[in-house]
Amino acid sequence: MENYIVAMVTFAGIYGIMALGLNVIWGMAGMINLGLVGFFAFGAYTTTLLTKNLGLPIGLGMAAAFAATAVAGVGVALITGRMRGDYLAIVTLGFSETVRIGASNEIWLTNGTDGISGIPGPWRGEVTPETFNLIYLGIVSAFVLVIFTVMQRVRHAPLGRVLRAIRDDDQVTAVAGKNVIMHKAKAFALGAGVLGLAGAIYAHYVSYIAPDGFVPLITIYIVLALTAGGTGNNVGAVVGALLVVFFMESTRFLTEVVPGLEAVQYAALREMLIGGSLIAILHFRPTGLFPERIVRHEPAKEGQKS
Q1: How far apart are CA 169 and CA 57, in angstroms?
Q2: I want to staple 32 with a disulfide (CB 3.0 to 4.6 A). Which of 63, 89, 113, 248 is the partner?
Q3: What is the pLDDT along the chain (306 residues), one digit of tens a residue?
Q4: CB-based burial of residue 298 (10 Å sphere; 0-12 exposed, 13-18 middle, 19+ buried)?
Q5: Cβ distance 134 to 218 under 8 Å?
């Protein structure tokens, strides 16, 4: 049971990293991104090919996953820079499906639907599985802390203020002299890079990846996590991820509470309870558990120093 809890907290940390990446793109810049799992998969395959096939160190593979996915994010941002709303959502969703279908068909590179196994993990095989899980939980926790700190700095930096201005009204921001497309590209690069890093962390933890593991449902979970936690707030992103994983895993024990149902019925009941719990949170807290709070500075009065 302890090993199970450690594994679930580790996955919650990975989801938290993804929520932090989404928060830059959607929460700060206001760009709807339904291609999260595509960037997640891109990072996972990047580090896998470098570390397993070429034998590079895990740290270098993770860094390459961040960089490569950030570049892909810039490409998507430049293509979708002038798109809004549903159009942006459709294009990013198309990117996600392109990555998944490409991984399924490029057998020479990704081994197709059979996936890639034996992905190296730090000290895997040198310590017991229980110890490995604890080590990796520490690694994931460190990544969450570092990324959270960086995102907090970004949120309060001039870049974060410009991104929020773009979210509120990009035309007014452009009139104010800000390059909207360039700032959107920065947001996409940073957010996508974090999503790719989360994919790399995931790959080195589970030791096996396949296209079927990167389904759009993961994107929905992360969007729900950020919405329930509080869009635009990094604290809300992490807390929302913890909540989603808690709801997902706690409902697995329904067989002990509601006997007599078939497997399909249990699955449907689980989804209903997860969705109902998140709807209840949003009903009582429409802006999330930790809504974004923007400190507004009053203009200096005459005679006072600015």
Answers
A1: 44
A2: 89
A3: 788 899 999 999 999 999 999 999 999 998 888 889 999 999 999 999 999 989 999 999 999 999 999 999 999 888 877 777 778 888 888 999 999 999 999 999 999 999 999 999 999 989 999 999 999 999 999 999 999 999 999 999 999 999 999 998 888 999 989 999 999 999 999 999 999 999 999 999 999 999 999 998 899 999 999 999 999 899 999 999 999 999 888 887 776 777 777 778 777 888 888 888 888 888 888 888 888 876 555 555 555 544
A4: exposed
A5: no
Give the C-alpha distances (Å, rounded to integers) separating 218 from 14, 121, 293: 12, 23, 28
Give pTM, 2 decimals: 0.91
- Which residue ranges make up each domain of the chain? 2-214
Give me the sign of the Cα torsion angle 268, 282, 193, 91: positive
